[in-house]
TrEMBL record:
InterPro entries attached to this UniProt entry: CenT-Element_Derived (IPR050863), Homeodomain-like_sf (IPR009057), HTH_CenpB_DNA-bd_dom (IPR006600)
Coiled coil: none
Gene Ontology CC: one annotated term: nucleus
Protein name: TIGD3 protein
One Pfam family this sequence matches: HTH_Tnp_Tc5
Domain of life: Eukaryota
Keyword Secreted: no
Domain HTH CENPB-type, residue spans: 113-178
UniProt cross-references to Gene3D superfamilies, sorted A to Z: Homeodomain-like
Gene: Tigd3_1
Length: 178
């Protein structure tokens, strides 16, 4: 049903008019009570403060490498590079300070589309498997999912860890290691 006549502020917003800052918040006439200063409208903004509900933009590994290359330019400042990539100056600074780790990930052929580095459930087992995987590829061996799962189980047993190599784990391991 109808909650009664709409407050004047809501009518102004619906017409596309900007309410004056001096307009008092309208009390609800009926229906559900509202907190002081709030109005049900699509724009939900009555004060002079901008509506900033933006989240931090997370850059992929490839974009982070590009940002580091851009920072190497002698004419580039931290704020100009941050603006170019659509991130904050402090985030660009954090990426710049983690330069060695980012470039090491890039050189080890990590997934260039990943935005966060996530560890799997078998940390040291996964690292050992990846090392073995690279060595096996260098020897020209043909590898498949069941071979990788069996080797992961073998490595887990030798390290004394309780670990089960499932199909889901293998799929995520492949994504983590490109």
């Amino acid at each position: 049903g109808s909650a009664g006549p709409k407050p004047e502020v809501v009518l102004k917003l619906e017409r596309g008019e900007e309410p004056h800052l001096g307009d008092p918040p309208a009390a609800p006439v009926g229906g559900t009570p509202q907190a002081p200063g709030t109005v049900e409208s699509p724009r939900r903004r009555l004060s002079g403060c901008p509506a900033t509900t933006s989240k931090r933009k997370e850059l992929s590994l490839a974009d982070r490498v590009k940002l580091l290359q851009a920072l190497e330019s002698p004419s580039a400042s931290l704020s100009s590079v941050a603006k170019l990539f659509g991130i904050s100056k402090s985030q660009a600074g954090r990426i710049g300070r983690r330069r060695e780790q980012i470039l090491a990930d890039w050189r080890t052929n990590a997934n260039p589309l990943r935005k966060r580095r996530r560890e799997g459930k078998g940390g040291e087992v996964e690292d050992a498997l990846f090392t073995w995987f690279r060595q096996a590829l260098a020897r020209g061996e043909r590898l498949s999912g069941p071979i990788l799962k069996a080797k992961a189980q073998e490595l887990a047993l030798s390290s004394g860890r309780d670990f089960e190599a499932t199909d889901g784990w293998l799929c995520r391991w492949k994504m983590r290691h490109n």
